[in-house]
Design brief:
The chain has 6 helices and no strands. It is mostly helical. It has 2 domains: about 35 residues; about 55 residues, DNA polymerase, domain 1.
């Protein structure tokens, strides 16, 4: 095998690897985009006045929504009950239909 044929073979292998990487680029990018980056957390220790309730006991609120509500200053059932569905939807960046009933459930748990 001549030297030129060896170089051509290596160029073909490198080109093939490049083609595979190009074909899979959307898969790698979409995996990276699906992850939500961690937001910086600036927490102050709760005072005796602040009450922290487990908001995940309300139907429809999971750990992610509970964390986002806590970051917005809503960490108790009484504060959640005082908010409107529209305001909760705005805070969480979700539709208002998903937050309907949360205030009533929080009212019953305070």
């Amino acid at each position: 095998m001549s030297r030129l044929a060896k170089y051509a073979r290596w160029i073909g292998v490198a080109g093939g690897m490049g083609a595979v990487a190009w074909a899979l680029r959307d898969r790698f990018v979409s995996i990276a985009i699906q992850r939500e980056p961690e937001r910086p957390v600036f927490r102050t220790p709760p005072t005796e006045v602040d009450q922290i309730d487990d908001l995940t006991t309300i139907s429809g609120i999971g750990p992610v929504f509970a964390r986002r509500l806590e970051e917005a200053g809503i960490s108790s059932f009484s504060r959640l009950a005082a908010e409107t569905d529209a305001r909760l939807a705005e805070i969480l960046n979700i539709s208002e239909s998903r937050t309907s009933g949360w205030s009533e459930q929080a009212e019953g748990l305070k």
